[in-house]
Amino acid sequence: MYFDFHTHNKVRRKGVFSIVNIRAGYDDLEEINGPVSFGVHPWDTTRLNSIKVIDEVTNIKDLITIGECGLDKYKSGSLSEQTELFIKHVHCSEQLHKPLIIHCVGRYNEIINLKKQINPTQPWIIHGFNGHPQLAEQLIRNGFLLSFGSAIFIGKSKARKSLIMMRDEPFFLETDDSGFAIEKLYSQVSELQFIEINHLKNKIATTFFKTFPGMEFPRSQATC
After folding, report:
1. Which domains are present in the chain?
2. According to its record, what are the GO cellular component terms (predicted)?
3. Which residue of 29, 58, 81, 186 is surrounded by the most CB atoms within 10 Å?
């Protein structure tokens, strides 16, 4: 079984467990079946009645993660507005016992400080991580999980360098909106980290079950 931690592709495929992201204000919940994440993207901070939208999250069927949410230095809304919305997502994550998927651009110090202040019980996962290895190490030290996407195909990308040094660390893989199949990302990681595909599949499955301990999913099926 392959695990696609974060995708905008609504088509479910046999042999792939995917978490489809629902971006508030853009995606129709009625069109999607199976595990989903839901949140107000930081790009939409000033576009939606964001706080009210998040209050409706408890009505979503098959919700297993909150987000993507977070802070983006170069997009909509001030830092204070984005932080208020992010903290609302954190409260939902804690109240519903759902992991938090984070979009972060240029605000890693702020995200790390918020985690220290809040001391959440739920996992915080940085999606689409494309930072340098030193940042990856800092995030790992502070209890974050990282999810890597298509940036690992770019020869000199920071994501690729970080992934190579994370051979012994837990992480997720995701297709996001790249158009790549998740199998291609697994193959790329297998080559970069010099590990067998089956070993990688087992490793990511183990990380998944530790992150989602209440998920009813046959472990034997997930690790095949």
Report:
1. 2-222 (3.20.20.140)
2. cytosol
3. 186
CA-CA distance, 143 to 114, in Å (whole number)?
A: 12
Name 130's Cβ contacts closer than 8 Å, sequence gap at least 6. Answer: 149, 151, 157, 158, 159
Burial of 197 (0-12, 13-18, 19+ CB in 10 A): middle
Burial class (CB in 10 A: 0-12, 13-18, 19+), 198: exposed
d(CA 71, CA 84): 10
44-80 pLDDT, tens digit each: 888 766 666 777 777 788 899 999 999 999 987 899 9
Distance of CA 176 to the CA centre of its chain: 9
**Alpha-carbon span 128 to 2, nearest angstrom:** 17
The pLDDT > 70 percentage for the chain reads 91
Q: Which residues contact 92 (CB under 8 A, 6 or more apart)?
A: 54, 57, 66, 98
Helix (H) or strand (E) holding 72: strand 63-72
